Amino acid sequence: MNDLSHFNIHRVALSRIRGFGRRGFRLIASLALIAAVTFFAYRPLAVNATTAGFFYLVAILVIATGWGLAEATTASIAAMLCLNYFFLPPIGTFTIADPQNWVALFAFLATSITASQLSLQAKNRAREAVDRQLEMERLYALSRAILLTDMTQPVAKQIAYQIAHTFGFFGVALYDRASGEIQRAGPEDLPEFDEKLREVAVQGTQLQDDSRQVVVTAIRLGGVPIGSIALRGPSLSDTALQAVSNLVAIGLEKVRGQELANRAEASRQSEELKSTLLDAIAHEFKTPLTSIKAAASAMLSSPNPLSSEQHELATIIDEEADRLARLVTEAIQMARIEGGKFQLSPAPQSPSSLIAAALEQVKPMADGREVRLEVPTGLPSIWADVELIQLAIRQLLDNALKYSPSTAPITISARGAAGGVVISVTDQGPGVPETEQSRIFERFYRSATDRHHIAGTGMGLTIAREIMRAHGGEVSVASRPGHGAEFSLVFQARPQEKTQ
After folding, report:
1. CA 102 to CA 495: how far, in whole Å?
2. CA separation (Å) from 363 to 37, 78, 189, 397, 455?
3. Is 180 left (phi over 0), alpha (psi -120 to 50) or beta?
């Protein structure tokens, strides 16, 4: 047992001794007041028994109001004896000649004790009302202090200090489960309750140590314990204690909400900066790529014949310039999509025309690969931005060309579904594992088994997904390992089309 514990035990013992001393003094003072009333009623005033009884009742009510029931009861018994000895015949004895006076004497005792109890109850109610009002004022002050906490400083420590300062506690210990830290305030640190704080925070219970005047209660948010708090000092009503716990929970949740908002804002600014830089860099690439493409085209179309080696090199330059131009276009579109800077120019489009235009654009990459079309006639039109939807279809075709064997055909199909249209691209590649199907649409994500031997940026499927989201549709994938994959663009029917 440490020095602080010894000190607290001695202080509690001393407090009890002082309490007994005060109680003894009040009992003696009560008897002295009854003696004084007896003296003045018997000698100077020489009143009758009825008037003396009235004086005694007034004195007993004063004692009950000022001190308590024990003192008032003691005074009532003393007053009854004095009334019998000094005012009821035969005077000077504790006997009563008239039997009716026995009834009057015990009626006086019952009346005085009842009046004492009623007076004490009224006093207690008044005191409780004052205490509740004081608690409400302190709770209001605490709530205001929590709302005005400085978010740049440790908030849990500020809350612990405000509780100790507002309610006058000797010690406050606040445990936050999220951080695992215990913040303290007040003259006493209460280190011996650290383990209790953690237990209460896990179990969501309440502990009370009357000898130490300490209560440990859980802090709940939405019924879930998120921490605990230990308070040493003046006792609080259960309602006030619960209110303090709720205010602490609100304060801690406010901190977490603000931290999440700060992180979200920082992430948004980071994404915005990244999109701006990507857009700027991609545009810077456009100028030299245009010059390279023009030079390669001029060499291939020159009237002066090139040697076979020169023609092959010029063809490679021309094809790779086209490939770089597509990558730059993807980067620009990605930057615009992420930054929310692109605008749709939708109009009714035929699914077959969109597919045909996209196939024409990827023909140089197909290199003679077999592409099967399954597009029936009579499909409803798609309300779409031509350039963006063709870009989305190209992303799926490019993905199929990369991940399927060169001898395997690729199928692009369209069908009606729930009043809308679904455009699908099916390959016969290795397929997409189920564990990766939810991640392949993330920015820059590429499978660990493919990233080293298959070219790509990991942006194509993300671009397709964002384009479809802007159109109110979605991109889905259906695949089994070893059986290829089917990527689908799902277009929803326009509201006016659904009602027709």
Report:
1. 97
2. 119, 116, 76, 10, 18
3. left
* CA 355 to each of CA 61, 128, 371, 390: distance values in angstroms, whole numbers, following the listed order: 100, 81, 12, 7
Which residues on neighbouring strands pair with residue 478, listed in sequence order? 486
User: Does residue 405 register a pLDDT over 50?
Assistant: yes
Cα–Cα distance for residue pair 64/33, rounded to 1 Å: 12
Question: If DSSP states are collapsed to H, E and C, what string results for 178-236?
Answer: CCCEEEEECCCCCHHHHHHHHHHHHHCCEEEECCCCEEEEEEEECCEEEEEEEEECCCC
Q: Residue 374 in 3-state DSSP? A: strand
Q: Please, where are the H alpha helices in 43-68?
A: 49-66
> pLDDT tens across 183-220, in order?
888 888 888 888 888 888 888 888 888 888 888 999 88
Largest CA distance in the chain: 154
How confident is the model at residue 245, as a pLDDT? 86
Q: What is the mean pLDDT of residues 51-62?
A: 84
Tokens of 199: 């237990």
d(CA 116, CA 463): 85
Classify residue 497 by its DSSP letter: H
What totals of helices (H) and strands (E) does the chain contain, helices first?
A: 12, 12
Identify the structural domains of the chain with CATH numbers, from first to last. 3-136 (no CATH), 152-236 (3.30.450.40), 263-338 (1.10.287), 347-498 (3.30.565.10)
Q: Is pLDDT of 47 > 50?
A: yes
8-state DSSP, 153: S
Report whether pLDDT(497) > 60. no
Surface-to-core class of residue 216, CB atoms within 10 Å of its CB (0-12 exposed, 13-18 middle, 19+ buried): buried
Q: Are the CB atoms for 376 and 319 separated by under 8 Å?
A: no
Preceding peptide of 90 cis, ω within 30°? yes
